[in-house]
Amino acid sequence: MGIVLGANEYGKAETRLVRVDREGDRHTLHDLNVSVALRGDLDGTHLTGDNATVLPTDSMKNTVYVFARRYGVGQIEDFGLRLARHFVDSQPSIGAARVSIEEYGWTRLGPHSFARDGGETRTAVLTYDGRESWAVGGLHGLVLLNSTDSEFWGYVKDEYTTLPETRERVLATAVAASWRFGTVPDDWADTNAGVRADLVEAFVETYSRSLQQTLYQMGRRVLENRPEVVEVRLSLPNRHHLLVDLAPFGQDNPNEVFVAADRPYGLIEGTVLRDDAPPAGLAWW
Amino acid sequence: MGIVLGANEYGKAETRLVRVDREGDRHTLHDLNVSVALRGDLDGTHLTGDNATVLPTDSMKNTVYVFARRYGVGQIEDFGLRLARHFVDSQPSIGAARVSIEEYGWTRLGPHSFARDGGETRTAVLTYDGRESWAVGGLHGLVLLNSTDSEFWGYVKDEYTTLPETRERVLATAVAASWRFGTVPDDWADTNAGVRADLVEAFVETYSRSLQQTLYQMGRRVLENRPEVVEVRLSLPNRHHLLVDLAPFGQDNPNEVFVAADRPYGLIEGTVLRDDAPPAGLAWW
Amino acid sequence: MGIVLGANEYGKAETRLVRVDREGDRHTLHDLNVSVALRGDLDGTHLTGDNATVLPTDSMKNTVYVFARRYGVGQIEDFGLRLARHFVDSQPSIGAARVSIEEYGWTRLGPHSFARDGGETRTAVLTYDGRESWAVGGLHGLVLLNSTDSEFWGYVKDEYTTLPETRERVLATAVAASWRFGTVPDDWADTNAGVRADLVEAFVETYSRSLQQTLYQMGRRVLENRPEVVEVRLSLPNRHHLLVDLAPFGQDNPNEVFVAADRPYGLIEGTVLRDDAPPAGLAWW
Amino acid sequence: MGIVLGANEYGKAETRLVRVDREGDRHTLHDLNVSVALRGDLDGTHLTGDNATVLPTDSMKNTVYVFARRYGVGQIEDFGLRLARHFVDSQPSIGAARVSIEEYGWTRLGPHSFARDGGETRTAVLTYDGRESWAVGGLHGLVLLNSTDSEFWGYVKDEYTTLPETRERVLATAVAASWRFGTVPDDWADTNAGVRADLVEAFVETYSRSLQQTLYQMGRRVLENRPEVVEVRLSLPNRHHLLVDLAPFGQDNPNEVFVAADRPYGLIEGTVLRDDAPPAGLAWW
Asked: What's the pTM?
């Protein structure tokens, strides 16, 4: 019997970068949170503290800033992939790199003035192993609600079931979605905006008998409309809106007054994909 | 020498209420976080545990839900004032009530579908003492940024000052604002939307030599445009965007690449008001 | 009618400082979050952007670090007061300074190893106006629970009251406390530890008929035991532990199984003070 | 080409349970956050909204509370495994269940009084697939710091490296650890306390040339001392403590005054395991 080092990785997390592009008086803003993770021949540093194959995480941070100046940010998938390639191609000991980016949106108020969009965050994860690269787009914090067209009934009733069946409920969730690309789209931003629209429209248009049904329709809609996407992963908390019992006060409550509950919440997670999707490789790392 | 009970209050905080108004197929959503605080003759419960003058905080919660059903929510100032009046007028032992409301905005996606607006929150604080009432509108989480037209120089240099003067910097802040009403406006929502627009426009249009200067202009703009508002309080964190030194890498950085720093941050707080503003009374409780 | 600048202040918030004292091989740690706020003649910067009376907040941050090196941190009340005095005494335009400090505790694991204490935070607020100084000690995040010896009955029942009276409930709260000093104690740490012990013991030992009663006893206990403290302010959320109704499952629930609810919560706030306490002046700013 | 449903699961997350055990006057407290996830034949609900195989997440919540009353909580591994077995054994459509538990510690203050331990949280993940079960213990939020005995040098220097080598630095991290059991220990609590002690002692006693080296020693120490544990996974953020440059103020800084930085941070993640560890199966789900 022996004790061995298993899977491991390291990197710099949450490098906050704001890039202002100045074309004359009209500025553009990129507001990113960049995390880098590397895998490779890292036995030395773990086993003996020999750092000969370790690029300092501080250097990764510097690289993010230098690349932002040298190449601009542009679309975060391009920016992330450039970084991932750089680390693998320049470090012999590094076998694979993953660059995860959160992008915070800003609404233009003027030529050089902006208001930050709240809540929703765009994400991208770019992975490269020296030969192949993978791209996963995503978003989180998109909170959606349908105030009708949602039912829940016909479920298992065991001895611990007290939930009444309903043909009318509020359905609300905070969408966290990731979508794997099979091919590089013509325009990342265009595709990603399209995916977001698909997700929203499917949520809105699905007459729902379960959040799982809505989840599947959301993933399906993306795959139907976006040939470049081969897999969609969704994590949907069921943000319960509990009907308040007003009978003690002599009032009915015809689906009007709800408690927005914090916890507990249902959590529905699922994958929708093409049956001929290529292997995921390191896409999900 | 004796030990005495000083100022005190109690109430139910953070009652989460979602009200769906159903007019045929087209629904409207009110999403609130309601906190109630009461003052009055509460010596008994503090000194001896005699609760004869204590309305349970659970009853306050119930009242919020019942009133939402009975009267609807409408504008949060009306809803809050109705609640504040109710507690004082129905409880002989209660001398004053404050109802603080956060409202979370939702963007319509369809007749009964919505996406929650992130980040920014509307607030209202309604206070009533049995004779007089006060209304304070507000917002927080409005993050604004100017990528130019901001300078900072001519300041005190003491022995601990190393900050270089600058004629060009990024100015960013998360606005927390409260505005006291001198009179009841024709339409609360209309006025509050106008105040928000004034704050944003003043931020955008002010060529700034200090965040204090911007703060003052924001408050002034509101008072100039909104006769019903008599006082504006602003709390503006200076969200520093630090220029990255790229010289070690042989690059300049002409105000393009910044670190968005978390901490520490400057914190600028100030009040702008009319010189004939009526006394604030319990407005700020 | 005119528009005027009202009360205002500015400063550097949340400067994170860790000070390692090395006496031979045995180290000591001070882990602080320091916020500075200044008031004074600041009309220029607000009204015209003239910063001639503005000490940059960056210089305040530097001062915190320099003072930590030069004088050590020692007890945070001494450290904070030294800083407050410095800003007022060295800047003619500044009339008053407030230094607010959070201290995070660490438990010693070895001569130079430590584990951070979670949850609870010590605080101190030191204020100086050029002539007089004020000290307020405090803590927050101290979560206490009694699993019995708590009742709640005999309260007002209005038409919205459904809460059943109880002679047996769980009482839990997260204590946020501040205590104003009338005189400088021999040893700040000693007094503050004593106040904490008083608060905890009074919570534990009070047979409670309301959280207000417990609050008063907590404040009273401090004032009885600590002559140097003249006023105690307490903010006590009532962290409801709701008895789960297990009757649908054929089980009783003799005060054994509870839901720890997030929201809403009761919020009980009160002051206990000496009837001969000196005026608070700027103690509470 | 077709679109298909891939991996999916659902359950109730974050059911907050407080269990008071009353043995005469001396009470014991269990404070848990329980999350259940189920996998199985869930095509119907996803594809057509047919919920015939769906046990409502509300029933899972009820089961948690009923089991807490009926069996007590005891050790969370036993409690979690009992729940996992129940869901799989009672629901023909469910193939596997995972019960994840966070336990919040409380320090006894008296026979029925407690103070909540802050920061650190114990975790357990119990998985069952109808034939086999897996147990993973864990903790997170354990913040450790060595103020010396940490170096970092001999690393790769690329064109973006500016970090100076050091033979003396502060090393701090917030430990998130999970350990997989190969066999059921005699006493879960005893083993878990032992693992925690091993992690802490290895952190304290390792003279560190990289956080990776410390990570490996932490995992190794556990495996050496705990035959029932076969694999340890560690996620260690490097909480940078940056030495403040006091030279502009004419002062040196002999490793005394540091900025505790929020972001970015290094993130070191690794697994240490026995070379004869049995397959992980669903242990990590």
From this structure: 0.98
